[in-house]
Amino acid sequence: MKTWQIVFCIILFSTLGCKKKIDDNYRPEFIGMWYSKNDNTDKRIYFSISKDSHADYSLYEGMNNVDYAGIARASDHHLKIGRIMNLKIIEYPHQIDTTIEKHDLIDYIGSHKLANWKMVLNGIFPLILFRDQGKLEYYKVDY
């Protein structure tokens, strides 16, 4: 019984300690307002991560609208929002050349601006019946 308790504590602490809160000093490239849109399914996702690690997430897909908020945490391989939303990082946030990739974010910020940041995430969103959302590209404007 004692061995089981020790193993459980080691696993618990190792999984909790892997992700740190996102802030100005740790992974600041995640901070900002991100937008993803799938033209084939009319799926739109907006999420923002503030400097104090707070994240707001909104998904619009047909009649399914989901809003979720929580603390944003990141590791080398995952972005986590709140306690249950876990996203695998396929491409870290990076600046893009707006002369090659052009993504107009009028829906997101209310004016015509080209995104100059991109990241790619893949994950399961438990709030929507544990449905795999697949790999999605997210864009943000920082000017």
Provide the fold topology.
Elements: H1 2-16, E1 20-21, E2 32-38, E3 43-49, E4 54-61, E5 64-74, E6 78-81, E7 85-95, H2 106-109, E8 117-125, E9 131-140
Antiparallel strand pairs: 1-5, 2-3, 3-4, 4-5, 5-6, 6-7, 7-8, 8-9
Annotation keywords:
globular; mainly beta; 143 residues; nine-stranded antiparallel beta sheet; Lipocalin
Q: Look up the CATH topology.
A: Lipocalin
Report the strand count.
9
Q: Please write the string of helix (H) and strand (E) elements.
A: HEEEEEEEHEE
Percentage of residues in strands: over 45%
Descriptive overview:
With 143 residues, the protein is mostly beta strands. It has one domain: Lipocalin (Beta Barrel). 13% of the residues lie in helices and 48% in strands. The protein contains 2 helices and 9 strands. It has helices spanning 2-16, 106-109; strands at 20-21, 32-38, 43-49, 54-61, 64-74, 78-81, 85-95, 117-125, 131-140. Strands 1, 2, 3, 4, 5, 6, 7, 8 and 9 form a 9-stranded antiparallel β-sheet that branches. β2 and β3 form a beta hairpin. The longest helix is centred in the N-terminal third of the chain and has 15 residues, at 2-16. It is globular and about 60 Å long.
